[in-house]
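hi support,

uploading two proteins for the ticket. first:
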Amino acid sequence: MIQEKKVLAIIPARGGSKGIPKKNIIKVGGKPLIQYTVEAAKASKYIDEIHISTDDVEIASTVNGLGLHIDRLRPKHLAQDNSKTIDVMIDVLDYYNKQNVRFDIVVLLQPTQPLRKSFHIDEAIEKYLEFNEESVVSVSLVNEHPILMRKINEFGTLLPLLNETSTIRRQDFTPFYIVNGAVYINKVNELTSNTSLNDNLRPYIMDRRYHVDIDTYNDLKMFELLLDEEGEQ
């Protein structure tokens, strides 16, 4: 809790994954992938409740082994390839509402961003309150700057994405950021099925070294390398 506001963290962990089967519980660095996010959420100073939303009994069993009890599985219609995360969040909030349990702030933590730490979560929540409860999304500086990106028109001609000259020093480029998927924060009573989480208003800027998105086996290898680097520091 922070400033008398109750905070719910939702960790979505669907069983189906085309790129990496059982991705959320695959072992990396000796732990199931989801454990990194669970540990970060548990270590947060402000999170009051952690809810794992999963349709998969094996994931539920793994999470129960981490000390979080899952007493319901996600409805199947919300566990499809085209299911929207915002609808999953609303389902979880409805579940608590039916038990007369209310929260003020909801934090979405995707297990595919395992390098996010508890201090990232807490700093993002503090930013949310600093800016009068405007929605927050974590971002990182882009590696490939859009000023150097081009599209090809119907005539086969290169066109710039940005209406800016690229004949400037790289250090003078305007900073651009990418939504990294690590932390989303919203006011509970403002969430609707039309809410676009990636369009949350306030940026919480994370150092690029914490940005990894696990979608392929190559991403897993990169994550293992980053874990090794962390262990050597």
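and the second one:
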Amino acid sequence: MFAASGSVWEISQAELAVRMVLAAALGGAIGIEREWNNHAAGFRTHILVCLGAATIMLMSIYGFSQFVNEPNVQVDPARLAAQVISGIGFLGAGAILRNGSGIKGLTTAASIWTVAAIGLCVGAGFLTAAFLCTFLVLVSLYVLNKWEKQLLRHRRTHKLEVTFSNDPEIVGRIAEVFIRRQMDISQLRIHPDESEEGAMKLEFKVKRIRFEKLLEAVGEVGRLEGIKAVETDGLDSPLAA
């Protein structure tokens, strides 16, 4: 986009500043989407990753230009960039959280890794790829996310934990509540409740058809005789999954 000053190993101060500001802007654009959806790595994190990657790329290409003409010196502009790609993994790993049998943060970890790649593109002056990648990432995170939720809305499951007195017939009554509403039960497990002597805990997953039906079922289970507590993985929003 910009013409390098002098030779391929030199860059003007203005172009240097433009690339660094552009990296911060592109990284921030992706970070805003993550921040808006309350993910672990948000606006500032994505800016720092993209800007840091761009700075390292700029240093890798132009930071050692004074040694280019030295005898027995081989310049490899991609050497530091390769370390960014492999080293950014520690940030991605920090964004991944395990919650029981589920894992959260994989998309955010992937966005951090992709933002690093965008920063490297900006630092190297590969601006068309940087803009295109940013656009496709935003489409993936925002547009495709909504499409995916709509497509899989009937496949979502809720995890429920029901604490009840030690009565085998209660399990059948609980199952009847959900079966009557045509809601599938899976991964059922019964074990003693460690927090209360003589009580049992039933853990299972329910395939949700409509949010209203799920609320009705949970309310009815809570009113059954012998039920001490009903806990779920979140019923505060129709979009909870």
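thanks. also noticed: The first helix runs from residue 13 to 36.
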